[in-house]
Amino acid sequence: GPAYCDKITAAGGKAICHTETGLIHGYLRARHSVDRARHSFTRIVEAIDALGHGDWPG
User: Fold this and answer.
1) End-to-end Cα, the chain, rounded Å
2) Where are the alpha helices (DSSP H) in the chain?
3) For residues 58 and 16, is the Cβ–Cβ distance under 8 A?
4) Domain regions of the chain by residue span
5) Which residues neighbour 28 within 8 Å (Cβ) at sequence distance 6 or greater?
6) The pTM is what?
7) What tens-digit pLDDT sequence spans the chain (58 residues)?
8) How far apart are CA 36 and CA 28, in angstroms?
9) How many distinct helices (H) and strands (E) make up the chain?
10) Any idea what DSSP says for residue 27?
């Protein structure tokens, strides 16, 4: 969560924290049937793709 992200950046690492408030643990299993889970999964995939191309947001 945010505290872990803060510790990483304080130690000189790179981290971004996105909190999906209101979604339950394991919500990504519902990505095929729940719009909010689908949109979150899409953001995750796009972020991983960007990192794979060497793009770091911010």
Assistant:
1) 18
2) 2-10, 35-52
3) yes
4) 24-58
5) 37, 40, 41, 44
6) 0.75
7) 999 999 999 999 888 898 999 889 899 999 999 999 999 999 999 989 988 898 877 5
8) 9
9) 2, 0
10) G
